Amino acid sequence: MNRNMEYEQLMRELEALPVPEGGIRRAVRRRRLNRYLLHPLTSIAAVLALFVILVNASTTVAHACSRIPGLRELAAAVTFSRSLSDAVANEYVQPVEQEQTKEGITVRVEYLIVDQRTVTVFYRTDSERYPRLEAIPTLYAADGGELENGSWWSNDWDVPNGTLRSIRLDFLNANVPASLLLKLGLYSMTAADTPAEPAGSDRDDAASAPPCAAEFEFLLEFDPYYMSQGKHFETDATITLDGQIMHITNFDVYPSYLSFSMRGDAANTAWLMSLRYYLVTDRGERFDPVTSGITATGNPDTPEMMTFRADSTFFYYAKAVTLYVTGAEWLDKGQEAIRIDLRQEKADCMPEGTELVSAVREDDCWMVTVLHDRMDAQPFMTDYYDAAGTRYSMESWTSGEKMLNGKEAPEGYCYTCFPLRGYPYDEVWITPRYTRRWSVSPPLEAAIPLE
Amino acid sequence: MDWKDYTERAEALKPRLFRTAILYLGSESAAEEALDEALYKGLLACRKLRKEEYFDTWLTRILLNVCADEKKRRRRFLDLEELPESAAETFDSLPLREAVGKLPEELKRVVILRFFSDYTLRETADILGIPQGTAATRQRRALALLRLEFGEEMAE
């Protein structure tokens, strides 16, 4: 085969390759995610997860649904949260029924689940003109001002018209106010149907954001009965985990979640970074850590994660619970930052289950690769420091079972490569999420009275 | 250019962009990543594009810049080493796709844009920000190394 025949064949091969789908859609989503997904106020650990279970698998839910129209659909929309499912099963729902229509789009806010610390808004969009709409919710104080202490999230991407969607708003250090303003921007995901941007848009990203098909505003006013729901308990239980003394200082039970706070003893040699646990009520019902949304919150003054969230016992009227701890991750004091000699490719120490593979200088960027045994989490925080203590932040990293040169990680391990862009020095201090892990069997327990 | 127009034009250009990235980076997964990044950067900047007739060359230039960054990032991991123009025999011994990948950077860009991404010589020069004569010279050198022969119509 001569070169020209080879060229013809190569062109045929290239033209036959399927072009990756969704690139533009991913770009749009990335643009929005960067702005809207989460507005953290303090260190928080969160997961975005959606679980689908059969609503009728719960006899209580099925019973409630049989009596209140529309509740079955609501129950189906909250299966990602046992607490919200229990709330719906107990008819702990504030109906709203606000509806607006603009530009051929109808938005209907239908239900709220509100307690002292959280608001979950359920709404749906419908349109004959736009077959697929993406909703970007933003919550404001009732007077239109910025919300303080509020952190909201929504994982309703790619939801067909007519489906019940939700937004959850968490107040971390404050109670839910009497009312909130929900602004909802709706974007067509079908380019051909997208109308021109509404006149008068003064958004600060107007130069780069896609045009909004329509914007809606709903003033949400909360029933004081729901706003007052939740109980706070001061506790003085203590539990020793892996030789570290932890004081359980308070316990909060809201309809939408349960939380307890732990404070490490001053004599401890390590910070508690994560906890594996479950709770059992005095009547034997088990409750697990939440699997969606904020799972733990920390203290800005220490690396420690202090408050942990679990499914709520609110509708079970427990008089006491027992905390069972099965494991933890610790960050040893004094190892909050780990020094890596980039030139020598040597680290003073590494988190358990992690090893430094390489550090390669590429122009103005150090590419640092580590091998670690957890696929679900990057072993380091995004902040890193130079010898003078100047803080830098990595923007991204990549993880996979193969290095880019094709070298495969041992089974159960993966590589993570993180670039230190523009970092000029040969040594760096990176911040591990933990330095060691600990498991215990049978679980250690602490009794917590709730009266 | 508004977002609606950007989406339509970028969608139509995607196959050419993908081909360009594959040949430049030599890997489909790297090309997909670069394509995503270029589409994202284009989306952020499309409002600044005043002359829509330059859309294709503008977005292709963004893609080439992204590919160049990606190439630097992956230099250690992918076989992206170039051969000097004096290594004519080595070029001969390689399959065409690999030979294109081993071309010196300035020649590779021209040959990919001209003969695999279907740009004219003028468009290629615009994308690369070089005079048309320079693009023609680089094209001639690249075709000689690859031992590709095209008729006058295609070579212009």
SSE topology:
The complex is a heterodimer of chains A (451) and B (156).
Chain A: H1 3-16, H2 23-36, E1 44-47, H3 59-67, H4 71-77, H5 82-89, E2 94-102, E3 105-114, E4 118-127, E5 133-141, E6 150-153, E7 165-171, E8 179-188, E9 214-221, H6 224-227, E10 231-241, E11 244-253, E12 258-264, E13 270-281, E14 286-287, E15 293-298, E16 305-310, E17 320-332, E18 338-341, E19 346-347, E20 354-362, E21 365-372, E22 380-385, E23 391-393, E24 398-400, E25 414-421, E26 427-432, E27 436-449
Antiparallel strand pairs in A: 1-15, 2-3, 3-4, 4-7, 5-8, 6-7, 8-9, 10-11, 11-12, 12-16, 13-14, 13-17, 15-16, 17-27, 18-19, 18-26, 20-21, 21-25, 22-23, 22-26, 24-25
Chain B: H1 3-25, H2 28-45, H3 55-74, H4 88-93, H5 96-102, H6 105-115, H7 121-128, H8 132-146, H9 152-155
Helix pairs in contact in B: 1-2, 1-3, 2-3, 3-7, 6-7, 6-8, 7-8
Structure description:
The complex is a heterodimer of chains A (451) and B (156). Chain A has six helices and 27 strands. Chain A is mainly beta and 451 residues long. Chain A has a six-stranded antiparallel β-sheet with strand order 1-15-16-12-11-10, with no helix packed on it. A five-stranded antiparallel β-sheet of chain A has the order 2-3-4-7-6, with no helix packed on it. In chain A, a hairpin with a 2-residue loop joins strand 10 and strand 11. The longest helix of chain A has 14 residues, at 3-16. Mean pLDDT of chain A is 81; it is low at 33-42, 48-67 and 191-209. Chain B is mainly alpha-helical and 156 residues long. In chain B, 72% of the residues lie in helices and 0% in strands. Chain B is built from nine helices and no strands. Chain B has helices at 3-25, 28-45, 55-74, 88-93, 96-102, 105-115, 121-128, 132-146, 152-155. In chain B, helix 6 packs across helix 7 (121-128), helix 6 packs across helix 8 and helix 7 packs across helix 8 (132-146). Chains A and B meet through helix 1 and helix 2 of A and helix 1, helix 2 and helix 3 of B.
